[in-house]
Amino acid sequence: MARSNYTSEDIKILSDREHVRLRTQIYLGNMTPTSYPVPLFDGDDLSIKNIEFIPALYKAVGEIIDNSIDEFAQIKTKNKVLKIEAEPFNGWYRIGDNGRGIPIDKHSSGKYTPEVALGSLRAGRNFGDDREAGVIGQNGVGSACTNYCSSEFIIVVNRDGKKYVQSFEDGAKIVHRPSIRKGPKTRTGTQVSFTLDDKVFEDVAIDPRLMRNKAIEIALTNPGLVVHYNKEKFKFKGMEDLVRKMTNTYGGSYFRFCAKHEGLELDFFVIDGVYESLDEQMFTWVNSSLLFDGGLVNTQFVNALVDKTIKSLAANAKRQKINITKNDVRQNLLILANLKITDPEYDAQSKTRLTGPNLRKEMSDMITDQWKSFARKNRSWLDSVVERARVRHHATENKKAIIEHKKSFNRKIKGLVDATSRYRQDCSLLITEGESAASMITEARDPATIGSFPLTGKINNVYGNTVAQVLQMG
């Protein structure tokens, strides 16, 4: 029951730290264990497993990783290295890169820049209009949120021959003065170590498969980037590198749809022969981050692919008198997409569902422009779509015919002279060639136990006909 003595004392003002720790779901996403299908990569193989985890916990780790990916997206260095050390069950992580390093000078706020960048909400470098496609950070809240949700948070920056070290405790409630000393002249980069706080999260454990997979995903979606995860090392020429090996292993096939526009890079891999399901399965990474909840881009690509497929097979379907549906196309399809977008729009800070930009035209044009090549390389897949439609069509027609045929069971059959006995097991039916032979038998038969039925006309050849076609012959 609400109190009746509502006063100004009831109005509370929370600090950024307090608000993030109290309402973590606003900043990092769902705080409830949730199960998602995840494409687990292992060598040249891919398996889809449902993994339960706390999205906000996973996002807190991802925010620090995203900083390194954003740094790599803005520099042209060839030798890019990301190191992730993790103890997922304990909530401890160390993430470092060999980028330029956060500037070590003092910020206009009076604090050192690393403290501002990683310890303050609404502080970041991606608020301008000159961002590169592939940059993840947008709102300047992610890293600070992770800091506020950690029992310990340590920054190490190497830049300009200096080494900057600063630690935070109890969700940045305690901020230690930074140590700035002489460092290696040739070493640059930022390293962040942190332990997620069990006072904020009910459970700080994350499935180790999910974190290892995160490292592989980063390497897959960033060609040439070397990713170290604990004692493993991952590097790919691109997502196509894995897709090619995977389809060779399973004897499947794939096609790459791709397009490039200002602030936008699209890469879609349509894979057949690797996945089996009545529905398609699509996984999309936007700026190296997996969309667990999919979103607009998934729907628009699948719709564009389905529409073009049905349109291209329309003449074939008409000849066979069948109707190709969306479900005929979607079956057994696996789609992997790697997108780089300058201004992605999400439904929340957790960034699990993409809501914009609207790419319907770009994807439709891309599929149309590359369709001839796709159709030439995937003739067998297109044939399988038609075959599924044919089988479904005939199954539907057969079902209708059987239902109609059952309705005729109580109708009188022309030419049948039935036996009159109630004991049907004692009765016989004589089949004669023509009506004249039937009439001759009628005089000699026992009407109680023997019936007769004349065959007239020509016997039909039913080889290759469907049930519906046979029943229509009468």
From TrEMBL:
Its cofactor is Mg(2+). One of its GO terms (biological process) is DNA topological change. Gene3D superfamilies: 3.30.230.10, 3.40.50.670, Histidine kinase-like ATPase, C-terminal domain. One of its GO terms (molecular function) is DNA binding. The keyword Transmembrane does not apply. Keywords: ATP-binding, DNA-binding, Isomerase, Nucleotide-binding, Topoisomerase. InterPro entries: HATPase_C_sf, HATPase_dom, Ribosomal_Su5_D2-typ_SF, Ribsml_uS5_D2-typ_fold_subgr, Topo_IIA, Topo_IIA-like_dom_sf, Topo_IIA_B_C, Topo_IIA_bsu_dom2. SUPFAM superfamilies: ATPase domain of HSP90 chaperone/DNA topoisomerase II/histidine kinase, Ribosomal protein S5 domain 2-like, Type II DNA topoisomerase. The keyword Nucleotide-binding applies. Signal peptide: none annotated. Its EC number is 5.6.2.2. It catalyses: ATP-dependent breakage, passage and rejoining of double-stranded DNA. Pfam families: DNA_gyraseB, HATPase_c. Residues 52-200 form the Histidine kinase/HSP90-like ATPase domain. Belongs to the type II topoisomerase GyrB family. PANTHER family: DNA GYRASE SUBUNIT B, MITOCHONDRIAL, DNA GYRASE/TOPOISOMERASE SUBUNIT B. This is DNA topoisomerase (ATP-hydrolyzing).
